[in-house]
Design brief:
alpha/beta, TIM Barrel, eight-stranded parallel β-sheet
């Protein structure tokens, strides 16, 4: 079976195209202010070979957007759905309630009501997958996964060691992966961890779950993997080849990558399928 190819990031690609993404809503701003650019990015990832597309719901929560949160969420899902082929799948993003790189700020199990509310809204909007992503806290990740899985929608978990690979050890990520599987995750991924440091984490979670994968960030600009580096897509595909060889069945891109990275990633995934025959 050919590995599933996820799309790449929305936030850093919006920034690369000149669309402001100020906090705390980040990419959610663009759902209202630059919906045409959001749609174009979805189309570009589809053209590059991605078949699972994450709607721009990373920060479409009540705590960030107030009363209009659900309207923005619904619009984000509709933009994604209308921008990609009907045969492709749309994922709804569920993020940590606080800073993705500050596990010390995580509310842990107290996050349950908010994650449940967001999961129900995304399920109601018709997403095909609920993607609980960029969690540096295993406790909060497991809670989010459990509430997402309660909706009956296929649920994936994505865990991060952070931009310096310092927020989680491989062992801690493996423990978090097991907790997510026990909570209902159908797949566990490593995300928003530098591409050059992702393999060791992928190998760790491979021991905890049968379906796993990765969508890494480009790391520091000096590594030449992304952020506009001319050979970045080729370098990223080289790292991804190692993930595929290790058994990854889902691959994509995160911060600092773009459609060109996904295109070479899709090619690598196709080659991996050929080797399996």
């Amino acid at each position: 079976m050919q590995p599933v190819v996820l799309d790449g990031p929305m936030g850093t690609e919006l920034a690369a195209r000149g669309v402001p993404t100020p906090g705390p809503a980040w990419s959610a701003h663009a759902v209202e202010s630059a919906s045409d650019v959001v749609a174009a990015i979805h189309r570009d990832y589809a053209a590059a070979g991605a078949t699972v597309h994450t709607a721009t719901t990373f920060r479409t929560t009540r705590r960030v957007l107030g009363a209009r949160w659900e309207a923005v969420l619904g619009r984000a899902v509709r933009i994604a759905r209308s921008s990609v082929p009907a045969s492709h799948r749309v994922a709804g993003s569920i993020a940590p309630l606080d800073d993705c790189y500050r596990p010390d700020l995580s509310p842990g199990s107290r996050s349950r009501p908010e994650h449940a509310e967001l999961a129900r809204a995304l399920a109601g909007a018709g997403v095909d997958v609920l993607l609980c992503e960029t969690f540096p806290s295993g406790v909060e990740a497991a809670v989010a996964v459990e509430e997402a899985a309660r909706t009956g929608v296929e649920t994936w978990a994505a865990l991060t060691a952070g931009p310096a690979a310092a927020l989680m050890s491989p062992r801690a990520m493996a423990d978090a992966a097991r907790a997510c599987v026990e909570s209902g995750a159908a797949a566990v991924l490593v995300n928003c961890t530098p591409a050059a440091r992702t393999l060791v984490y992928l190998q760790a979670i491979a021991e905890a779950c049968s379906r796993f994968g990765a969508y890494a960030n480009a790391g520091d600009a000096s590594e030449g993997v992304g952020w506009g580096a001319p050979d970045g897509p080729r370098e990223y595909a080289r790292w991804a080849g190692g993930w595929l060889a290790a058994g990854a069945s889902i691959v994509g891109g995160c911060c600092g990558t773009g459609p060109a990275h996904v295109a070479l990633l899709a090619r690598a995934a196709g080659e991996a399928r050929g080797r399996q025959r």
